[in-house]
Amino acid sequence: MDLAEVLLIAFALAMDAFAVALSTGAYLVRVNVRQTFRLVFHFGLFQFFMPILGWVAGAQLLRFMSAFDHWIAFALLAFIGGRMIASAFQTREDAIRGDVTRGMSLVALSVATSIDALAVGLSLAVIDTPIVFPSLVIGVIAALMTFLGLRLGERFSAAFGKRMEFAGGVILVCIGAKILFEHLV
Q1: pTM over cut 0.90
Q2: Which of 154, 34, 162 is nearest to 101 (CA)?
Q3: pLDDT in the model for residue 96
Q4: Mind giving me the DSSP string for the chain?
Q5: Distance from CA of residue 75 to its chain's centroid?
Q6: Around Cβ 84, how many Cβ atoms within 10 Å?
Q7: What does the buried/exposed string (b/e) look like for 49-77 if buried means 16 or more CB atoms within 10 Å of the residue's CB?
Q8: pLDDT tens digits, residue range 151-170?
Q9: Which of 55, 113, 137, 172 could pair covalently with 125 via S-S, beta carbons 3.0-4.6 A apart?
Q10: Whole-angstrom Cα distance, residue 48 to residue 20?
């Protein structure tokens, strides 16, 4: 597998991370350095390790996971997106804005955006491709796209306020629905 193919795969996998980061930037409104680091680090790390996990686990794990991985991704994204949508309808005084870059929300988003990378790792194992370099590229690209998404989401939120927060929640739910639809059809 040449570098161009690895880069195409990495950018394709990073699109979910980018979209979630865009939504997160809009939801948080003001993203600080710690939040940026946590989201960028975790999305990059999960995107790096999931292909390795898929490569190591082989076909057995995919057969087991493929029966319900799409439901997991959908549930996680729909839950977090739903919270963002609900928050968009609250006044600033009423809103209890949780930090989705911390705790289980961060883990849920990281897993949801990297499940496809698990299947890529399995695919690379099937075609007998070494996994470390592609995983490294996938992780770095995901981290960069996450950073870019956070910054753009923050800027859009400053300009569009609650509408951007609502749109961010809808985007997360739609990403989850897309994942579910692709696996069910």
Answers
A1: no
A2: 34
A3: 46
A4: --HHHHHHHHHHHHHHHHHHHHHHHHHHSS--HHHHHHHHHHHHHHHHHHHHHHHHHHHHHHHHHTTTHHHHHHHHHHHHHHHHHHHHTS-TTT-----TTSHHHHHHHHHHHHHHHHHHHHHHHHTT--SHHHHHHHHHHHHHHHHHHHHHHHHHHHHHTHHHHHHHHHHHHHHHHHHHHHHH-
A5: 13
A6: 25
A7: bbbbbbbebeeeebeebeeebbebbbebb
A8: 988 887 666 666 766 776 78
A9: 55
A10: 17
Under the banding of pLDDT at 50, 70 and 90, the label for residue 90 is low
Q: Rounded to whole angstroms, what are the CA distances from 27 to 61, 71, 98, 100, 144?
A: 35, 24, 10, 9, 19
Q: Are 76 and 109 in contact (CB under 8 A)?
A: yes
C-beta separation of 66 from 154 below 8 A: no
Encoding tokens for residue 154? Answer: 């923050």
